[in-house]
Every structure is written in structure tokens, then in C-alpha cells.
């Protein structure tokens, strides 16, 4: 189960990992907390009045295409996008948005999804949300709450279903310093303009809070990831940053997607190369 804040987040974080496991026969569910109704239109070709007027419907349709490309199941939690406040001081968040929901209210439908889907592994964001969007931070909070509560029959008794305890919880480490450095150096070595030069400077100036514990080899699924990204046409400019590094350069320089193992109820040896390490093993008597 991969828990994300908005439609398109599942395609920019961990999409090749999901495609790899789908190809291996693993059932994968993407949970999308909000509809992305307050997201900006980031692709100039889609910045049109009819798209703006129906942005919620458009993003729902984009998500449907992306999940088909990735081969995953997908569930909406039904909360309203909080938007990304900007300014100094920051404006208040809009009433009724996801980030302002009480924790138990926001986590309840995710607890229900965990008990129904019964995942062994959950992917989510770190406590900073990966970046400080209020919906990403809230997604972290509800994911941790659901991981800890779904297996306890005394918690959330009203959601129904049998208690289910996931075994591992991971944080996405998509833009870790090592990956940024490797891609920047690979682009320079190939004589190409790197989109990561400024990112690298910023990354090197701040220490990472979480170490990468788990690297999933999924380079052969980068093309599927990119197709899923392009399905989110309002959010992804096909001539933009996401596609500046050729796939062959990416596969050579950094063919993995990376994670931090935040919780584990099974024994596993770090570093890992499989999200199901410690789960796949069978005990013989």
C-alpha cells in the first residue's frame, strides 16, 4: 500500500517500484488522500479556462489513466486538498481541508483501507512530508496512525473489518543526496546540461534526516513511471524537469528507488534490496 497526498504523487514517488512489484505478481494499492482540487496547473498546455473550472474532475481522470498504466488498484479517501500556502506570514489554511482535519477523523478511512486490503508493507512520506506541503505532512501522520492502530481491535472499532497489522513502514527517499549527486555527475560526464546543479548545492548544505536503508532495483520500469507521470497532464510539463535526464543515463547512474525503513515488526538485515525482506522468508519446523 502506497499512501499519497494528491493524484500525481504516486507517479513521482515510487512509481517504478510499484510497477516492478506488480510485474512480480504483488497486489499494490495506491491510497490518495485528497482530490488535488487546489493544485496549480503546471503544464502550460493545460492552463485553459475549461480545465481550471473542472480541475477536480480532470485530476480524477488523470489518476484513472495513471493507475491503469502502473497496473495498481487505487482508492480515494475523499478529503479536500489544502493547497500550498505561500507568503510571509503564511495565510491560514482553508476551512474543511485535509490538513485541518482531526487526526482520528483523517486516519479513520485509511484504517478501514488497511483492514480491507491487508497490506504487509506501507509506503508513505517522512514527518516533513518529503517537502513541507501541509497535505504531505498530514499524510505522514495518518499513515503512522493507521500502521499503529489498524491491528488493534480496541482502536477505530467503528470502521468494521478484522484488525490487520502491517509489518513494515517505509518513507520515500526519492530525492536523496546520493541520487542527486550521481545524476548530476552523469549528466556532466555525458556533456549534457544537468537539472540537478542547484539541487545538489542545496542538498549538500543540509544533512539528511533519514538514511537510505532500502534500494529497489527498478530501472527497467522507469519508462512506465514516466508514462504514468505524463498521464497527470495538468501537473507535468512534458518538456520540463522530470524528463531532462535520458533514461539510459538514469539507469546507468542510479537504477533504484530508495526508502528508509521507519518501522518493522519482522527481522531484516540492512541494507535491503526488497521491501518484503523478512516477510517472504518462511519458518520451517
Automatic annotation (TrEMBL):
It catalyses: mycothiol S-conjugate + H2O = an N-acetyl-L-cysteine-S-conjugate + 1D-myo-inositol 2-amino-2-deoxy-alpha-D-glucopyranoside. It comes from the Bacteria. Zn(2+) binds at residues 6, 9, 136. GO terms for molecular function: hydrolase activity, acting on carbon-nitrogen (but not peptide) bonds, in linear amides; zinc ion binding. GO terms for biological process: mycothiol metabolic process; mycothiol-dependent detoxification. Pfam families: PIG-L. Binds 1 zinc ion per subunit. Its cofactor is Zn(2+). InterPro entries: GlcNAc_PI_deacetylase-related, LmbE-like_dom_sf, Mca. Its EC number is 3.5.1.115. Keywords: Hydrolase, Metal-binding, Zinc. PANTHER family: N-ACETYLGLUCOSAMINYL-PHOSPHATIDYLINOSITOL DE-N-ACETYLASE, N-ACETYLGLUCOSAMINYL-PHOSPHATIDYLINOSITOL DE-N-ACETYLASE-RELATED. Monomer. HAMAP family: Mca. Belongs to the MshB deacetylase family. Mca subfamily. A mycothiol (MSH, N-acetylcysteinyl-glucosaminyl-inositol) S-conjugate amidase, it recycles conjugated MSH to the N-acetyl cysteine conjugate (AcCys S-conjugate, a mercapturic acid) and the MSH precursor. Involved in MSH-dependent detoxification of a number of alkylating agents and antibiotics. This is Mycothiol S-conjugate amidase. It comes from Actinomadura harenae. The gene is mca.
Amino acid at each position: 500500500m502506497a499512501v499519497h497526498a494528491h493524484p500525481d504523487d504516486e507517479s513521482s514517488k515510487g512509481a517504478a517500484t510499484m510497477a516492478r512489484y506488480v510485474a512480480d505478481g504483488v497486489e499494490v494499492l495506491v491510497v490518495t488522500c485528497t482530490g488535488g482540487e487546489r493544485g496549480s496547473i503546471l503544464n502550460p498546455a493545460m492552463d485553459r479556462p475549461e480545465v481550471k473550472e473542472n480541475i477536480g474532475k480532470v485530476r480524477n481522470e488523470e489518476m484513472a489513466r495513471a493507475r491503469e498504466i502502473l497496473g495498481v488498484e487505487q482508492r480515494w479517501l475523499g478529503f479536500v486538498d489544502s493547497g500550498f500556502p505561500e507568503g510571509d506570514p503564511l495565510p491560514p489554511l482553508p476551512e474543511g481541508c485535509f490538513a485541518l482535519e482531526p487526526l482520528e477523523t483523517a486516519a479513520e478511512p485509511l484504517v478501514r483501507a488497511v483492514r480491507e486490503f491487508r497490506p504487509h508493507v506501507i509506503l508513505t512520506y517522512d514527518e516533513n512530508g518529503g517537502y513541507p506541503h501541509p497535505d504531505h505532512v498530514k499524510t505522514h501522520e495518518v499513515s503512522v496512525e493507521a500502521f499503529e492502530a489498524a491491528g488493534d481491535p480496541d482502536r477505530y472499532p467503528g470502521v468494521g473489518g478484522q484488525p490487520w497489522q502491517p509489518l513494515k513502514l517505509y518513507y520515500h527517499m526519492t530525492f536523496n543526496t546520493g541520487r542527486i549527486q550521481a545524476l548530476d555527475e552523469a549528466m556532466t560526464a555525458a556533456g549534457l546540461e544537468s537539472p540537478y546543479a542547484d539541487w545538489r548545492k542545496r542538498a549538500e548544505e543540509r544533512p539528511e534526516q533519514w538514511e537510505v536503508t532500502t534500494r529497489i532495483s527498478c530501472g527497467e520500469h522507469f519508462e512506465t513511471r514516466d508514462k504514468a507521470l505524463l498521464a497527470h497532464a495538468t501537473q507535468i510539463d512534458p518538456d520540463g524537469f522530470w524528463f531532462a535526464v535520458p533514461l539510459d543515463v538514469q539507469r546507468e547512474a542510479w537504477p533504484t528507488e530508495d526508502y528508509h525503513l521507519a518501522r518493522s515488526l519482522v527481522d531484516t538485515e540492512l541494507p535491503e534490496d526488497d521491501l518484503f525482506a523478512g516477510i517472504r522468508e518462511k519458518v520451517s519446523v
